[in-house]
Amino acid sequence: MDRRAREDRPASAARAPDGLTRNTTAAVRDALEGRRRGLALLLPLAGPAVVVSVAYIDPGNFATNIQAGARYGYALLWVVLLANVIAMLFQGLSAKLGIATGRNLAELCRDSLPAPFVWLMWSVSEVAAMATDLAEFLGGAIGLALLFHLPLLAGMAVTAVVTYALLFLERAGFRPLELVIGALVGVIGICYVLELFITPVEWPSLLRHLATPRLPDAQAVTIAVGIIGATVMPHALFLHSGLTQARVLARDDTERARLVKFSNVEVVVALSVAGLVNMAMVVMASGAFHEGYADVAGIGTAYRTLAPLLGAAAASIFLVSLIASGISSSVVGTLAGQMIMQGFVNFRIPLWLRRALTMVPSFVVVALGVNATVALVMSQVVLSLALPFPMTALVWFTCRRDVMGPHRNGALTAAVAVAGAAVVLALNVVLLLGTFGVAVPGLA
């Protein structure tokens, strides 16, 4: 996109930001023009990163984090930390792309890349969206089924109804949906604060492993890649640029720079909370299962084992957090899938139909008798394999002056982004080699 086209975008898109009330829009304008300070400045601008943070604490995270903590104790905490830092960087870039260009990542791919590559990226992104939805939908259903002693199919039906109800909130604007999702994120965070008071924690060992990169064996690679896939998610990279592209209509580059600054603060805060929740999941699984129950790999097994080990309260809190995670992330995943389809192929279907289509694989998995937790973990590996496509595109676009203007990445940001993408690609290569039986030096 040339400079003139970029400057013309706000004029051509001069409409009220989607989903913001008049009061919120006025508050945002006050913040941009310096009439607000402190928390009152940030609150009207908050929302996109909070919504996206749900993708970082979805049921796929529960599955991979339980396996990591039960099997390896604190040994893979450094992977969680690394994944969260990479996530902060790339979600910040995605938000900046939407603010600076007024377009989302999928739209820019459609207009800038060769048609065959666009179709390939769309296909991969749709597969990743289905894998995401499998994890989210199954997770909420498992939590409901265990907590209320329902058949899994009944839990899936309840999850579907609640998800549809939340999606209908979007008709009243996006702000109400942001507030509900933010409340669900708060529920998840509170649940894991409570879990840490119940679970024994070895703080010196925790801090040592947090700062010591080590993969104990080849199976740890699969779980590490699953953690990366469950944390840095393809649909979240697409979604964040879409949430910021027309949310606030900046009038000039100075206001865009302020929006980027505010967005970065929100990204750091929201994803720090998500990262701490992920670490708490690993710590809880390690404290409860690592000594004597290292083979605990399933969410259902974890729940049933928690009750005699830490008490019924700990087990119930675990399920409440899982249900909140599954429902909220399922809603966000549906919105992201709609944005991916619209961006790549300029085609939109009703959200209820999108929701219905993406639920089908989950019902198929249950009908075939596939272990639900195994399906959750493998879905995260699929996400990690799809991740290089949006990561590479995001780095490329945000480094281009003709796309970003004065907001393009600086040399340091570009170098760190390339390094983060390289880490993900390297882990993917190791996973593929292990899958095909090729020995990896340094791993058992």
Automatic annotation (TrEMBL):
Entry keyword annotation includes Ion transport: yes
Gene Ontology biological process: iron ion transmembrane transport
Main location: membrane
GO molecular function annotations of the record: cadmium ion transmembrane transporter activity; manganese ion transmembrane transporter activity; metal ion binding; symporter activity
Residue spans crossing the bilayer: 39-57, 72-93, 113-131, 137-167, 179-198, 218-243, 264-289, 309-335, 356-375, 381-399, 411-440
GO cellular component: plasma membrane
Keywords: Cell membrane, Ion transport, Membrane, Symport, Transmembrane, Transmembrane helix, Transport
Role noted for this protein: H(+)-stimulated, divalent metal cation uptake system.
Name of the protein in question: Divalent metal cation transporter MntH
Species: Paraburkholderia lycopersici
